[in-house]
Each structure stands twice: as C-alpha cells, then as structure tokens.
Design brief:
262 residues, alpha/beta, globular
Length: 262
C-alpha cells in the first residue's frame, strides 16, 4: 500500500498547488489523504477548500480549523490566556467564515474524525489517520524529546503526555498533522508519524511546503517526508491583497522569509 498524505494548508493555495504537482510527479498511490485544516489562516479560504474537495477519490479527515468553520467550538485555554490570540480567534475566524460558500461548509461538515487503512489482514499493521491525536483535534503530538531539545532547548511534551493522548486506542501506527513539523516518534510500541504541513511551519526556517509518502513494505510503514519550494513572494502578496487580518501572526513565516531574501 502506498499513500500520499498532506494537511494544514491554511488557505495557502500557492503552496498547495506546488504540493499537488510534486504529488503527481511521484505517483501513483493507492490513496491520497487530506489530514485536515484546509482554508482558515490564509488568503485563499474558499479556493483552497474547493481545490481540496475536487481532488478525485480523496480520503479526508477534519482538523480544528475546519471544525471552527462548521460549528461553534470551545475556545482552548491557551487562546484564552493570550489577549492577541483571543482577538485573532474572533476576527480571523469571522474573516475566514465570510469567505466560504455553503458548499465549502457542507464539505467540511461531511468529513470524518479518523480513517483506518489496512494494508494486510493483521490489525497490528493498520494505519490510523487523525488530525492531531486520537484524543481530539486540538490535542497535538510534538516531535521526539530529542528534537524538542534541538528546536526549543527544552522538552515541551514528554512521552508520558503522549501516552495520555493515545489512551483508548489500540493502533500501533498513527499518522497525524496539526503540529507543523514532520517527524517520526516512537512511544512504547506505537509509531507516530507527522505528515504536515503544507503551510505555516512551526520552524520558520523550514518554510517549504511539506507532505508525506507512506508505503507499507517489508512488514512495516516506511516514511518519506517531502519538501517542496514554491513562490513565497506570491503567497505573501496574496495575503496582503486579500487583507488577511493579523498578517504578522498568520503569515509571519512569509514576512520573515521575504525579509531574508529581499
């Protein structure tokens, strides 16, 4: 079984088109999977959702940003504790929702929470796909502890916290997005694969659009994280021309990249 999987596009249609072109060049696949967070957070809200929902045969799960366009959701504590993020939550959410069509919202509402793919008859080989973790669309999984030390100089999420977020699932292979850093992490006997993100990277210097090929071969899931360059200046212009609110936060990586390459 060979899968192409992408997520966390956040309205960056230019990055998405680059990913889809790279995907086409590296096919074929048994399935193409979208892991959630389509339009919110970027300039092309409707256009991105429409592009995703018209991919032939696409399998998809919803993310936290998609859920907000469909229904009222509880504001996370980390948002409530930050005045800037709380202001963004209201204004950016309203801005994104105003740029959707009824068809967009209906599509997002139709998406499921999780997917399970079975490359063999052995349940231990199954791959569970969720946006953030089995515990919820905002309960993400961080990179391995060693990578956390490299990126931030401290451990932000221990293996014990991950075990809590895996409670109740028997899956041995879990693919996630949400936390915008591609990685493979092992906790106990569970393989955790992050396949994101097309846009808004957690590590700003790693700005290229990211997606992942997962192949089941020789009795295990094999991971190929792919990085794709795209016209970041055009993406930034699109943010400005669209009047994207809170552009410093929503598109800070594009602003930083543009300043480095100017």
């Amino acid at each position: 079984m060979r899968l192409a999987i992408f997520s966390d596009v956040h309205g960056n249609l230019i990055a998405l088109e680059a990913v889809l072109a790279d995907m086409d060049a590296n096919g074929p696949y048994d399935h193409i999977i979208f892991g959630g967070d389509a339009g919110s957070g970027g300039p092309h809200v409707h256009e991105t959702i429409e592009r995703i929902r018209t991919i032939p045969g696409l399998l998809a799960v919803y993310g936290n940003a998609d859920e907000r366009l469909v229904r009222d959701v509880e504001i996370p504590d980390y948002i409530l504790e930050n005045p800037t993020w709380l202001a963004m939550w209201d204004k950016a959410g309203e801005w994104a929702h105003a740029r959707t069509t009824p068809e967009d919202v209906a599509y997002l509402a139709s998406l499921r929470y999780d997917l399970c793919l079975s490359p063999t008859s052995n349940p231990a080989d199954d791959l569970l796909v969720v946006h953030a973790s089995p515990l919820g669309v905002t309960r993400g999984i961080y990179p391995p502890e060693t990578d956390q030390l490299e990126y931030w100089g401290k451990i932000l999420q221990t293996d014990d916290v991950v075990r809590e977020r895996l409670a109740g699932t028997t899956a041995k292979n879990i693919a996630v997005g949400h936390f915008h850093v591609p990685f493979v992490r092992y906790v106990d006997n569970v393989m955790l694969i992050n396949f994101s993100s097309v846009s808004r990277p957690e590590i700003q210097s790693d700005w290229q659009a990211k997606w992942t090929i997962l192949t089941f071969a020789d009795g295990r899931w094999q991971v190929e994280h792919r990085r794709v360059p795209y016209d970041h200046q055009a993406a930034l212009r699109a943010c400005v021309e669209a009047g994207l609110p809170f552009i410093e936060e929503e598109a800070g990586f594009l602003l930083a990249l543009n300043s480095r390459t100017a």
